[in-house]
Amino acid sequence: MVGMQQDGAARGPGRPREERVTGAVLTAVVDLVTEQGIGAVTMDAVASRAGVSKPAMYRRWPTKQDLIIAAAESRLGVLSVPDLGDFRAELRLVLTARLEAYRLPGSDRLIAGLIGAAAETGAGRGQYAEYTERITSETRRILERGMARGDVDPDTDVRAATTLVAAPLLFRLIGEQETPDARFVETLVELVARAVGPTG
Amino acid sequence: MVGMQQDGAARGPGRPREERVTGAVLTAVVDLVTEQGIGAVTMDAVASRAGVSKPAMYRRWPTKQDLIIAAAESRLGVLSVPDLGDFRAELRLVLTARLEAYRLPGSDRLIAGLIGAAAETGAGRGQYAEYTERITSETRRILERGMARGDVDPDTDVRAATTLVAAPLLFRLIGEQETPDARFVETLVELVARAVGPTG
User: Fold this and answer.
1) What is the pTM of this model?
2) Do A128 and A192 reside in the same domain of the chain?
3) Does A163 contact B168 at a Cβ distance shorter than 8 Å?
4) How far A60 CA lies from chain B's nearest CA (Å)?
5) A102 vs B contacts (CB less than 8 Å)
6) Interchain proximity B177–A126, CB inside 8 Å
7) Would you say residue B58 lies in a domain?
8) Does an H or E element contain B36, and which?
9) Which of A67, A188, B13, B57 could, after both became Cys, cross-link A61 (CB 3.0–4.6 A)?
10) Residue B57: is it exposed, middle or buried by C-beta count within 10 angstroms (0-12/13-18/19+)?
11) Which residues, including other chains, have CB under 8 Å from residue A46's CB and lie 6 or more apart?
């Protein structure tokens, strides 16, 4: 997408071999989830499909939960939106990037599986919340930039508004079980911009 | 809650014995999920804990997915909000009722488990979307009443606005893994009311 970068799992530690391992493993996780569901994701199945050794996997992802979060982050990663001089335009970029990720085959199962798995494992809960915090960080940034610029109400509760931005596309996908579309994004841009816009 | 009713699984077919079975079974499902997670919910475990026969269960809930949705609906059911003459007041009732349900022990695991399970079973997907449709119906109704009354913009996309209302509390609970509070509800009431309020 023009003017925006999405940092995901492709950003490895910089060593080409490690990057190849990371790419193969995360692709294997996404493929397994897409084809068979989250229940098919075991360390054995992923290692076998990716053609890597289990020790190599355990070094980077000690638990299955780490692996699933890394796979999700390879699709829904941290965004970087430049200053476009307009909150609506920046919000549209954020939501469009998420829309594109949600529309990829298997994203619904991957995210729903991550949510289900996070609720089951005590250890995974904090990690998943931290992941959510990371991937919503750019929304906080565009809200703060809008407050400084003047096209976002300076009294806006940034955390609540960030949740208001992040939640609807996800809810449409996994609660209403429908792939969101560009029209829904446009409507959300309008609704959110009015919700946080300057008053008076 | 004053002035509002929540219809859940307590609304049985009217026969007292059936209602007792329903209550015992859905309580057993919620207790199992709260204590051990969704993985512990099997027809055997629920029948044993509820003290009912498996045939009696299968007659009402042919699949595990039916059972989990019914348990979720016993906590998060269809709301009924009277005309209060004010959209904000009605929206506050809806969100407060959801807040109360989300704050009950085990609600996070129950809902996350439902989402995870729905993604795994082809058959459950439609049922879960229908459940979402049912429990968001009252939000559509208060939006339409506000449009007729004049405190909601008549051009509002009711379906998109309904998703905007339903999504943030759920996202706070299962995405940010934090129990929502009354302050967040108040902030959402303000944000949503501005998003859909009359323009000009």
Assistant:
1) 0.91
2) yes
3) yes
4) 24
5) none
6) yes
7) yes
8) helix B16-36
9) A67
10) buried
11) A25, A28, A29, A32, A57, A67
Predicted pLDDT of residue A122:
62
Q: Is residue A4 part of a domain?
A: no
- With beta carbons less than 8 A apart as the criterion, state whether B32 and B45 touch: yes
- Domain that includes residue B30, residue range: 16-72
Residue pairs between chains A and B whose CB atoms are closer than 8 Å: 140
CATH number (domain holding residue B179): 1.10.357.10
Q: What is the mean pLDDT of each run of 10 residues along chain A (200 residues)?
A: 49 67 95 92 96 93 93 94 98 98 95 89 76 97 98 98 98 95 98 93
> In chain B, helix, strand, coil percent, each to 5?
70, 5, 25
Collect all residues of chain B within an 8 Å Cβ-Cβ radius of residue A130: none
pLDDT in tens, A31-81: 999 999 998 999 999 999 999 999 999 999 999 989 999 999 999 999 999
Q: Which of A39, A115, A133 is closest, CB to CB, to B112? A: A115
Does A138 reside within a domain?
Answer: yes
Counted domains in chain B: 2
What are the angstrom distances between the C-alpha of B36 and each of A31, B30, B49, B75, B143? Answer: 29, 10, 13, 18, 39
In A12-106, which ranges are continuous DSSP H helix? 16-36, 43-50, 54-60, 64-75, 87-102
Mutation site, B69, B191, B196, B199, interface A, largest A CB count within 10 A = B191
- Asked if B119 and A112 come within 8 Å (Cβ–Cβ), the reply is yes
Report residue B60 as tokens: 């009402």
Measured between CA atoms, how close is A114 to chain B, in angstroms?
A: 8
ipTM summary value: 0.91
- Chain B residue numbers with beta carbons less than 8 Å from the beta carbon of A187 are 157, 160
Write out the two tokens for A99.
């829309």
Are residues B178 and B83 both part of a single domain? Answer: yes
